[in-house]
Amino acid sequence: MNKITIKNNENTESEIFIENDISKKIQDFFEDKRYFLITNTTLAKLYPEILYKFNKKRIIIIKDGEKYKNFKTCNYILNELLKEKIERKDCIVALGGGVVGDMAAYCASTILRGVELIQIPTTLLAMCDSSIGGKTGYNTPFGKNLIGTFYCAKKIIIDPQFINTLDNSNYKCGLGEILKYAFIEKSCKNKKLYNLLNFLTINQTQDVKNEMPYIITCCASLKANVVSLDKKENNLRKILNLGHTYAHAIETYLKYKKISHGEAVSYGIKYAAQLSYNLSKIDKEYYNKINFLIDKFSLTNKKLKLKKEKVIELMTHDKKVQNGRINLLLPVAPLEVALFDNIDLPSLEASLL
Ligand SMILES: NC(=O)c1ccc[n+]([C@@H]2O[C@H](COP(=O)([O-])OP(=O)(O)OC[C@H]3O[C@@H](n4cnc5c(N)ncnc54)[C@H](O)[C@@H]3O)[C@@H](O)[C@H]2O)c1
Ligand SMILES: [Zn+2]
What we know:
353 residues; Rossmann fold; Dehydroquinate synthase-like, alpha domain; 2 domains; seven-stranded mixed sheet; 13 helices; globular; binds nicotinamide-adenine-dinucleotide; binds zinc ion
């Protein structure tokens, strides 16, 4: 079993455990307290054996989907917990992807001013990203994740076997974020260098499912390191956004349909690499390596037919454009990225292939 410890604020710690089939023995993590499970309808159907480990009265099942990531669902969860007389010494367990995880964590952080939280992430994205770092929240009509708190899970139990039931789109979504970690690894200032970039490049097959315990350990460790160095999103955490300025514009453009978030991030990384190469910040060899890896995992194969002007308009919409220039995170060397605050709009346009 791989174990990672994160030092949080106020001398608390989060522990991450990664092992195939670890979810089959979650009772080994239980102490002498009451556990409330929060999950969704899809996972409840797929994994009834996990639900059996909880008292029926302490299982809360919510509807599946980003559109239910809202105040109403959180209010429902909080009321169900209060109905069953949750106490401060009890613990909330989140079983699901980022949507369940973010809302369960929000409820754990606010109910009775905070009860213990265990995350059991079931999507690749949640394993590598959303379950780590303590960001909680839900969406409002004014935008995504606008209400939330910072609240870290005590334990994050990662069972890579959950990936076997994920559909291709959600699998690719996680792969896109994994590639992101491969390109920012040195900038994460991790003590240990995994060289995930090399690992993924030389791995013979494009289906890396069997390697997931190792790959997730690399990504979880990198994210854990970045968030422990930058607990409240001041600066270092920005490196986790490689490809995301492009990605958010593309997702808005396509109304969150057609491609997954991770695929949008992959297009974003591809464009960022093009921009970097055009501006002579990376050489041809590294430029080719980035493209090779994105192509190897077929992450940018869809014909999107994007109008360049519209993408640029969306990219500059919520970012301050000063003197016709915006800031952007770009690859500058293998495993390294840097933030530039002077990218002019013609260069940005030229990066959109
Ligand atoms: N807190 C953070 O730091 C952070 C970081 C990134 C993203 N997020 C949030 O995460 C959310 C996206 O998370 P996501 O991509 O995991 O989406 P999700 O939680 O909606 O899960 C995607 C789909 O997969 C299903 N699913 C989950 N696990 C499964 C499994 N093992 N087998 C079969 N189906 C399964 C879900 O029911 C859902 O239909 C967004 O709301 C985003 O804002 C949060
Ligand atoms: Zn992302």
